[in-house]
Every structure is written in structure tokens, then in C-alpha cells.
């Protein structure tokens, strides 16, 4: 394999096929409710960067998910929608507990913003490590504060550093979310972001192309001709650049986003993941490239466990 694909690690760790339960924890986001902003990130649609909003509690969602399990499978409980650590600590505990209701659940994963990580949250997440693997997914998207302001991210990049440091102190690993094709960014800026994340004790990286969803600020920019999404070819080359410059010990959790279905406006090629993944691997193999082959810096052993 041309890069460290997370599914290989999961198979090795848990000895089974792993499925992800995407849970809507009923959270909101401080970039939407007024704590640090109201409009949200300019690309974020009504789903809050996650699966469709559920009207059920976590326990009910878990019961539904577990009703369709197959023999021999194991599961990751993943809080994907909005900001999965943005609630009072007792509410977080109740929802995380409900998501770990079955012994076949081998990991708890929480997607959040770096400005919603503090000591209490890190301590709570670490408290689950005796019964399951735990990791946190931090939406960074870019190291550039200029781009961060342009996309209305609502926090400075230095906040990411303090979140990773807090989580590390409690032994909780982070996965960083990055986006290619952000407004005003080119491949050189994307690689500055890769150089930046290479400095941190992360578990892995999720990358996807910026896409335009209906009823977002980015959609209005797109309609006015102020934003042009990446082409299929442009994204494949961006992804290869990211992989080749990324530290070789990190795990790749994703190289494509989940298409937002009917909300998607552009680019339409993001609807199909397989052609993107196949083309990234094909071009890397053809050129003899591998994750980290252009990385220059300290080497670390491959992470064996989150
Ligand atoms: S932080 Fe996430 S949920 Fe909040 S506005 Fe941005 S993308 Fe949406």
C-alpha cells in the first residue's frame, strides 16, 4: 500500500471487520450559536459537517445500529455532527456512556473543534481508555490564519496547538482534519499545512476536497464566480502531495469526504469515492511514491495503537 491506511491497522488491532456507527449527539457548534460566531464555517451546511441530523437520543440510535449488526463485526462509535465536545461535562458523559453500550464497540471517536477541548473534556475522554480505544478528530482544515478568517473558522491556529497538548497530557490521541481547495489556497499553502501538522504527536489525518453545499456562504461565492472547486485531477494531485510530504508514522483515516447527497452543488465528482482512491494509488504506484517519501524531519516509529 502506498500509504498507511487506517483500515489495515483496525483489522490488525481488532481482528475483525470494523464498521462505524455515526452518531448524532445532539450537539451544536460555538461557531453557530454565538459563542464565537453565528454563521458557521462558510462551507458548513445544515448537517454541521456530519451525517443527517437525528431526532433520536444516543441510546435509541445505538439500539437501531446494533439491530443490524452481522456476526463477527466490531464497531466504532463516532460522534460526527457539529462539535462533539460542546456541552456540559455531565451531558457529554451521559452521551458517550450511551454510545459504549455493547462490548463489540472497540473505539470511541469524537469530532470536535480545538477550542472545545479543555482539561475536563480531556480527562473525561481519557477515563474511557481502560475499556475502549479513544481518539478525537480536530477540524483544523488549514494552518493559515488568513484562510481561517476567510472561511470563518472562528479560532486562531495556536488554539490547535494547545488542544493537542492538553489531549496528549491525558494520553488521548488526535486526528487532524484538513481540506484541499479552500478559497484562496493553492498546493503550496496546503503543503505548509502538512509541514505544520507534521510537528505534532497525532494519530492520523483526514483529508478531503472542499465542496460546495446548498445554502452556504461558499455556495453564494460559487454562484457569483468567486470560488472555483478543485477538479478531480487537481484533488488527486493535491492528495498525492499531502501523502508524500506527511510524516510516515501517521495513519490516513480518510482521503475523500462523505458526499452531502442532495445538498451537493459542486464539484459533482466527489459523489463517487472509489475512482478518487483508485487514481491516487495508481498514480503513486506508477511514480514509485509512498507516504512520507518527501518528508524531511525527525522519524518516529509507526503508531501501533491510538
Ligand atoms: S466547526 Fe464544524 S460544525 Fe461548526 S460551523 Fe465549522 S464545520 Fe460546521
Verbal overview:
The chain is of the alpha/beta class and 306 residues long. The chain has a single domain, classed as TIM Barrel (Alpha-Beta Barrel), CATH 3.20.20. 33% of the residues lie in helices and 17% in strands. Strands 1-2-3-4-5-6-8 form a 7-stranded parallel beta sheet, sandwiched between helices. Strands 7-9 form a two-stranded antiparallel ribbon. Helix 7 links the parallel strand 5 and strand 6. Helix 7 runs parallel beside helix 9 and helix 9 packs across helix 10. The protein binds iron/sulfur cluster (SF4). The site of iron/sulfur cluster has 12 residues, from loops.
Question: Can you give keywords for this protein?
Answer:
alpha/beta, 10 helices, 33% helix, two-stranded antiparallel ribbon, binds iron/sulfur cluster, TIM Barrel, 306 residues, 9 strands, 7-stranded parallel beta sheet
Summarize the structure.
This protein has 306 residues and is α/β, with parallel strands linked by helices. It has helices at residues 6-14, 58-66, 89-99, 119-127, 145-150, 158-169, 187-197, 217-223, 232-245, 274-287; strands at residues 18-23, 74-79, 105-112, 133-141, 173-180, 204-209, 212-213, 251-254, 264-266.
Give the helix/strand layout.
Layout: H1 6-14, E1 18-23, H2 58-66, E2 74-79, H3 89-99, E3 105-112, H4 119-127, E4 133-141, H5 145-150, H6 158-169, E5 173-180, H7 187-197, E6 204-209, E7 212-213, H8 217-223, H9 232-245, E8 251-254, E9 264-266, H10 274-287
This protein binds iron/sulfur cluster (SF4).
Residues 29, 31-32, 40-41, 44, 48-49, 82-83, 113, 139 line the site of iron/sulfur cluster.
Amino acid at each position: 500500500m502506498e500509504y498507511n491506511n487506517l483500515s489495515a491497522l483496525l483489522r490488525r488491532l481488532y481482528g475483525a471487520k470494523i464498521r462505524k456507527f455515526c452518531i448524532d449527539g445532539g450537539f451544536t457548534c460555538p461557531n453557530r450559536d454565538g459563542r464565537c460566531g453565528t454563521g458557521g464555517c462558510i462551507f458548513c451546511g445544515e448537517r454541521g459537517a456530519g451525517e443527517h441530523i437525528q431526532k433520536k437520543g444516543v441510546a435509541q440510535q445505538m439500539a437501531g445500529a446494533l439491530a443490524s449488526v452481522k456476526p463477527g463485526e466490531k464497531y466504532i462509535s463516532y460522534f460526527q455532527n457539529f462539535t462533539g465536545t460542546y456541552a456540559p461535562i455531565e451531558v457529554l458523559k451521559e452521551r458517550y456512556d450511551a454510545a459504549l453500550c455493547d462490548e463489540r464497540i472497540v473505539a470511541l471517536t469524537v469530532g470536535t473543534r480545538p477550542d472545545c477541548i479543555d482539561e475536563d473534556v480531556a480527562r473525561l475522554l481519557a477515563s474511557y481508555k481502560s475499556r475502549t480505544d479513544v481518539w478525537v478528530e480536530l477540524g483544523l482544515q488549514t494552518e493559515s490564519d488568513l484562510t481561517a478568517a476567510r472561511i470563518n473558522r472562528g479560532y486562531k491556529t495556536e488554539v490547535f496547538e494547545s488542544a493537542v497538548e492538553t489531549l496528549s497530557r491525558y494520553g488521548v490521541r488526535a486526528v487532524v482534519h484538513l481540506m484541499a481547495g479552500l478559497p484562496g489556497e493553492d498546493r503550496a499553502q496546503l503543503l505548509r499545512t502538512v509541514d505544520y501538522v507534521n510537528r505534532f504527536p497525532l494519530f492520523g489525518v483526514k483529508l478531503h476536497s472542499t465542496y460546495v453545499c446548498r445554502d452556504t456562504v461558499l455556495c453564494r461565492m460559487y454562484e457569483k464566480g468567486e470560488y472555483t472547486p478543485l477538479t478531480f485531477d487537481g484533488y488527486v494531485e493535491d492528495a498525492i502531495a499531502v501523502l508524500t510530504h506527511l510524516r510516515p508514522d501517521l495513519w490516513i483515516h480518510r482521503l475523500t469526504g462523505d458526499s452531502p447527497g442532495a445538498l451537493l452543488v459542486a464539484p459533482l465528482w466527489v459523489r463517487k469515492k472509489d475512482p478518487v482512491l483508485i487514481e491516487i494509488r495508481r498514480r503513486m504506484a506508477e511514480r514509485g511514491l509512498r507516504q512520507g517519501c518527501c518528508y524531511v524531519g525527525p522519524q518516529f516509529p509507526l503508531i501501533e495503537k491510538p
